[in-house]
Amino acid sequence: MAMTSALFPSQSLFMHITNQRSSQVSCGSSNKWAVEEHDLLRSTSSYNKDGFNSTKFAGLVKDVKYSLMTERNTNNLVLVDTLQRMGIEYHFQEEIESILHKEYDQSACFLKYQTPFDVSLCFKLLRQEGYHVSADVFKKFKNSDDSLRQDISGLIGLYEAAQLGVEGEHILDEVAKFSSDHLNACLAHSDSCDQATIIKETLKYPYHKSLASYKAKSFINNFKGINGCGRTTLQELANIHYSIKREIHQHELIQISRWWKSLGLAEDLKLLRDQPLKWYAWPMAMITDPIISQQRIEIAKCFSFIYVIDDIFDIYGTVEELALFTQAINRWELDVMVDLPEYMRPPFRAFYDTINSIGYNIYKIYGQNPTQNLRNAWKNLCNAFLKEAKWFASGELPTTHEYLKNGVVSSGVHVILTHMFFSLGFGLTNQNSMNLEDTSDMASSVATIFRLWNDIGSAKDENQEGNDGSYLECYLKEQKDGSMELAREYVVKLIENEWKKLNKESLHLMSQPNLRSFSKFSLNFARMIPLMYDYDDNQSLPILQGYIKSLLYDDLSSE
C-alpha cells in the first residue's frame, strides 16, 4: 500500500534505516498544553546535526535478526516480547511473523511449554497478532493453586494473558481473578521493593491495555538482557530508535502548532481550549510507526476541531445558535456562513477548509476522494452534540441507554477512525477491497470505552465550565438508591466488558492482512484514553504530562 510522509532531514534518515525491513511541556505557562516552539527547537536531538552512523545501526539490527533466526523456544518468544516492549519491533516484522507462525503451526502453547509463564507468553504473543489460540491451554493450571502462589513471574504472565480475553471465555475470567488475587496477596507480604513495583505496575497497567510507548522507557532502562542477545545491543538499538523518533515527533508538533496559530481561533474565541500539545498526543500515541508522519499531523488537526466544536457547543452557543451551526455542517456549503452568528464564522470556515484539504490530500495519494465519507462522520458528530445540548438545556436527563447510544457518536471516535481509515488508504486502492463498515464494531467499542472513561474522570476537563452530562448522572437517576461509588464500579465493569468486545474485533481484523495496522492503531486509541482522563485532585493530568514529556523531550536514560 502506498504511503507518503512529510519528511524532515531526520525523517529521511529514518526512512533510510527502516528500508532494512522492506517538548518540552511548558509547565510555567498559563496554558500547560501550549507549545513553546523555541524550547522544542533547542531540545531537538543531535543525531541529525552530529551525523548518524547508519552502518552501526545496520549492524545492530543484523545482530538481533541473527538472534531471532537462531534462538529456539522460550528464548525466541522472550526476545520477540522484548522487542515489542522496547518499541523497536518495526525493524524485525518479517522475522517476528515467521517465528509466531511456526509457533502457531506447531501448537507450541499446547505441547512444548508447561510453565505458566511460558504458556502465558506464547498465548499473549500469538493472540495479540491475531492468531486464534484457545484459552483452554490454561486449564492445565486449574488445580495448581498451591504451587502457583509464590510463582510471581507465572502469576504476572497469567494476569497479562487474561487481558486478551473475549466474551464467553470463562476460563480467562478465572485466570484473571486467580492471578490478581494472588498478586495482591504477594504484594501485601513482599519484602522486595522492586518486586512490589513490578506487581503494582502490572495490576494497574497490564501490557495489553497500556501504550507500549508509555512503558518502553522504563523497560529499556531496567532491561537486564536475555540469553542469546546482549543487553548492550538491544539497549543501544532502542536508544537510537527512541532519539530519532523523538525528533520526528518534535518536528510534527511544531507543524501542528504553527498551523493552529495561523488559524487565529484561540485569539478570536478566548474560551476555546488552546492545546495543540494535547491534541497531538492522541495521534502520537495511536500511530506509532515513525514513518507515518503526514497522517499523524492530519489526525491531530481532526482532534483539534473535535475539541473546538465541543467547546462551541458546551460554552458558547445557545440551542438555537447550535442548531444553525449543525445545519451548516450538514449542508457543507460556505454560503450558509451568513446565517451563523459572527463568532461561529471563523471556526466554521477554518474547519470547512481543513477537512476539504485533508480529503484532497488523500485524493492526491490514492486517486479517490473520500471527502463525502469524512463529511458524513462530522455531520453525525454535530447531530449528536446538538441532541445532547437539547437534553441538558431542557433539564431532562435521558436514560442510560439513550445517553450511551448518542454518547458513542459524540465521543468523536468515529470521526477519528474514519479519517484514519482513509488516510492510510484502506478501501481506496486496487490492492484491497476493505469497506469502512468492516471496522464499525471496533470503532463502537473504542467509542464506548472513551465515553465511559470520560464520564468517570475525577474532575472536569481543566477549567471548562460547560455542561457535558454524564453516564453516571443518568445511572443514578435510574437507580434511586444507588451511590456514586457503586455507579463508578458499575461503569468500570462496563469498560471491562467492552474491552472483551474490542479484543474480539481485533482478532477479526488482525486476521485480515490489510487491516492489521488499523486494528493496532485503534487499540492504541483505547489504550490512550485512561491517560487522557486520569485527573488528580488539582484537575491536572500528571501521568499524561509525564508521558508526553518523555516522548518529546527527555533522553532515554533520564528519569
Automatic annotation (TrEMBL):
Domain spans labelled Terpene synthase metal-binding: 261-501
Name of the protein in question: (3S,6E)-nerolidol synthase 1-like
Coiled-coil annotated spans: none
SUPFAM superfamilies hit by this protein: Terpenoid cyclases/Protein prenyltransferases, Terpenoid synthases
Domain Terpene synthase N-terminal: start-end pairs: 60-193
Pathway the protein acts in: Secondary metabolite biosynthesis; terpenoid biosynthesis
Cited InterPro entries: Isoprenoid_synthase_dom_sf, Terpene_cyclase-like_1_C, Terpene_cyclase_plant_C1, Terpene_synth_N, Terpene_synth_N_sf, Terpene_synthase-like, Terpene_synthase_metal-bd, Terpenoid_cyclase/PrenylTrfase
Keywords from the UniProt entry: Lyase, Magnesium, Metal-binding
Cofactor dependence: Mg(2+)
NAD keyword on record: no
Source organism (scientific name): Solanum pennellii (Tomato)
